[in-house]
Amino acid sequence: MSNETSNSKLIIFDTTLRDGEQSPGASMTMDEKVRIAKALEKMRVDIIEAGFPIASQGDFESVKAVASVIKNSTVCGLARALEKDISRAGEALKPAESSRIHTFIATSPIHMKMKLRMQPDDVLAQAVDAVKMARQFTDNVEFSPEDAGRSELDFLCRIIEAVIDAGATTINIPDTVGYNIPHQFGELIKNLIERIPNSDKAIFSVHCHNDLGLAVGNSLASILNGARQVECTINGLGERAGNASLEEIVMAVRTRQDVFACDSDLDTTQIVPCSKLVSGITGFPVQPNKAIVGANAFAHESGIHQDGILKSRETYEIMRAQDVGWSDNRMVLGKHSGRNAFKSRLQELNVEFSSEQELNETFTRFKELADKKHEIFDDDLIALVADANWSTENEHYKLVSLRVCSETGETPMASLVLEVGGKEVSANASGGGPVDASFRAIESIVNSETQLQLYSVNNITSGTDAQGEVTVRLEKAGRIISGQGADTDIVIASTNAYINALNKLEKTDNREHPQLGDV
Ligand code: KIV
Ligand code: ZN
Q1: Does the domain formed by 393-506 have CATH 1.10.3720.10?
Q2: Ligand having the closest approach to the CA of 144
Q3: Residue of 209, 229, 243, 512 to test ligand 1 pocket, by largest number of atoms within 8 Å of CB
Q4: Which CATH superfamily, name and number, covers 3-282?
Q5: Between 20 and 30 A from 76 (CA), which of 18, 156, 232, 424?
């Protein structure tokens, strides 16, 4: 038995770049997806679902780009059970060292009748054809009966047996609408494995949504009943209430080895850096009390707990913060720190630069920040690197200069110079406050026809000289895009976040949703 199929190995299938990205406002550019994919590879995720290649040219290019750079994880592309989807996925995955096609069709009575308008036997035949077609591109084929959590057991057994015979090597059971309860979902997995005669020829996987807050519970119940792959996302990102959270599943299994008969190969010290990367790129903040990756997850505020922890850590801690990648965010650098100190601290934080020029530019920005802010913490450095990456996205629109005037009893004013496609344009505007005035000045130039859906500011560290990290979410004709910016001056951070969102709008395209399209 290879390690991949050994019964004690839990395969981690990350779908942050596909199902996570389906979350409104979480769309990512190709560069951002490649950065996240590299972080997932470094964490030793087994399979990275990089996207839905038929959805748009941008999705196709992103899957191809991820397939070209990732060497140690399998790269997967999603396809409906349609020839055009499968051949597009096969094409996008060509550069991959190891590839998988994930094809799916709905199997619940309500989906077959209302969405597909198909008879169960026709659904079964289409699933079998799809798997056979996918096998022409790769011998690693996953099949999902969509909405399995509300499908009839007999039909599930029939269709799964048929797709395994047709060559599916992984059978993924999705709780698409997050309807299931752990003991019941675990029982479903057990029944499927026991009843399907050729179930030993495939790995059983689960894919749980969090509508009732049970995605992780359902995933864990499935593992206890024989599932050996889990599909999950960083920070539980995903449509509606999200997908099962990777970090919670991985750490539950790792921490409770007395309960689980398997474990993942994950390097858990990469969890927090990866969580920060995804949250920074998507603009979806992590709630402070979120397990594993929330800012308070390892904070022991109450006196009695602190006393216990000092006497013996195990009194109140079941995991070690450093095992999931928390650093102590110590003050590391200041105005007089040199380029080498800067570079080596970033290396310790797993940040890599693709060129000397990138390192030099980021170092210049660090010096600028150190002039404004006395003490530079790890989180400042991470934001600085993220900000440098956001700035490289800012190709079409660039902030050249900004002047705001805010005075008691006076209307706030903003004067701004923007570079638009290489040409400088200036504008003045007034507003309810300096941020509002700046956004209005931008709009008087760009006229983007977007609606502002969300504006939020978070301080990266404490103190009034802390950097503010701003997220702006814009909507245009049903498309929702988030932009980010960070600066010690929150008006500048806000303006950069707005410009970042406008640039992303230019760079990402309209795409088809896999679960609402045609079949
Ligand atoms: O939730 C779901 O059913 C999916 C499928 C495409 C696997 O995301
Ligand atoms: Zn899903």
Answers
A1: no
A2: 1
A3: 209
A4: Aldolase class I (3.20.20.70)
A5: 156
